């Protein structure tokens, strides 16, 4: 069970984009139906909705009397995982902490799912396709700690390059900056990230929380949250990542990144 970001996040269970149908999925009409039918519930939501999803699942378990294993695969901080675990435990539900790294399997193979917690082996044993489960020893929170660290690099670098190109465009030196950066500047990656920028805002705050818990300054990724919030309000943010071409010219990217 899961809801994607953007428009899909506001649709009911059983209402997904047509491109996502026909992949061996049985679409159910309500969360109660999902919880009652499933042995394992995989939760994928925008990071900012992860706590609400846990509360909804816990409520559905109380209504139905079902007790599926819940694997939260969201991009959240270990402290958020602890909160989700407590919410589910109140309803008699066990949690497996998970995090996803890599491209969507429908785009290209190579995705990895990191899993931690006492029952992580049960989730790893599911019939994954084009996804490699990686078991981490130790309690819940470790899989999410991996995601917070890797996403800080992947999404942080994209945000830095986007800011650099926007500033270069303003100062009239875009071509020179692109020539100097070479392959470091990937306009296509920025274009794809822009379509997901709205949900990246909460993820940047989760990374900030994770780094703050480690005794590091939280300010860096609070600033990146602001960067992605700005990007989410631009023309480049329209559309879906699967439909965004990777060969979009840099000049078009920065033009569509300009404030409305």
UniProtKB/TrEMBL annotation:
Domain 6-phosphogluconate dehydrogenase NADP-binding as annotated: residue spans: 24-121
Database matches in InterPro entries: 6-PGluconate_DH-like_C_sf, 6PGD_dom2, 6PGDH_NADP-bd, NAD(P)-bd_dom_sf, Pgluconate_DH_NAD-bd_C
Domain Phosphogluconate dehydrogenase NAD-binding putative C-terminal: residue ranges: 168-230
Pfam families cross-referenced by the UniProt entry: DUF1932, NAD_binding_2
Name of the protein described by the UniProt record: Phosphogluconate dehydrogenase NAD-binding putative C-terminal domain-containing protein
